[in-house]
Structure formats: structure tokens, C-alpha cells
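Q: Convert this sequence to C-alpha cells.
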Amino acid sequence: MSEPHKPRRPSYREPGALEALGQPSDPIAQLHAAHETAAALLHTGRAATDPAVTARLVALADDIGLGTLADLWASRPARSLPGVLWRLYLLREWVTTDPHGAAREYAAGIRFTEPNHAVAGVEPPGPDEVRRVADEILHGVFDGDFAVALERAAAFCRVVSSGRADVTEGARAVIQAGRLQVMADDLTAGARLWRAGELE
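A:
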């Protein structure tokens, strides 16, 4: 009869070894970096008076890559400042990459959620219009009412979610539509937190 397997004590790794494995050695520093970069970006954008600065911030993911923003913000809670900014840039990236698909799903969702269509403001629901609205939402983050921008993005997500569930078959489409609804709820909650001065 063989001896029972003894649990192995976790080995200690130096921070340098963890970094070599691609594992963050300082999660607290990463947390602070996420919130500080989000706050700095928002402050810079809202303090700017030059439209060119706002345009560059709207197109930030085009310049530095969505992956860079994901590394900074994607792991933060959805109802935090880096969390909502990540979702806004992710939404813009999708619409920019697939404007025809976004427009098709948006158009299909209007009849299910007319009030959200009115808030989102995509008229008529074509590829150019969905791209324009995605840019306008991020413009609103930096030179408008941030809470309204979040509510507009949430409304857009709700319309697209309803349309996706209607025009796309399969379990995957249902799951994706559900994720869009969750994103909409998180953005709406972010707007409430911003108004209360609690979005950090």
C-alpha cells in the first residue's frame, strides 16, 4: 500500500521571478495605477479647452491599443471609474470595428425599447450614425455631463441587446445580449455614483 499523498507547501517566489512569469508582483500598485490613470485621464479631458485634446482622448484606444487599456482597467470593478471608462472605450471599439453589425442590431432593438432609443439618440440607425453616437458618448465624458454620457451608453447597450436577442440565433447570442444588459446596468449605476460624488 502506497503512502498517502502529502500536500506540498507552496513555494516562495521572489517578485522578480513572478514578473518573469507574467504575474504582477504588486497587485496593490496595479490597483492604484488603474484608479489614478482613470482619474488623471478624466481630469485632463474635463479641464481641456482645446477640441483637439478631446478628440485625442476619444480616440485613445486607436492610438495606444485597446489591450493597453484592458491591462490598466479591465480587472477593476464595473462600478468604478476605471471600470466604466473601460466599458465606454470597449463599446466604442466594437461599434468602430463592426458598425454594420451594431447598426443592424440597434435597428432591430428599437421596437422593443423605444425610451432607450430616445436617450441613445441614434437617428437614423445606420453604420455612420452608430459610429457618431459612440464618439459623442465619449465626447460627453470629457466636455459634457459625465452621468448623461454614461446613461446614453447604457441606453445604447439596452437597444442593441434587445436587437441582438431578436435577430441573432443561438445560445451565444443570448449570452452576449445578457452581457450587454449587465453592462447597461453597470453604466447606469456608474451615473448614479458620479452624481453622488462616489464614483472612484
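Residues 113 and 159 are 6 Å apart (CA to CA).
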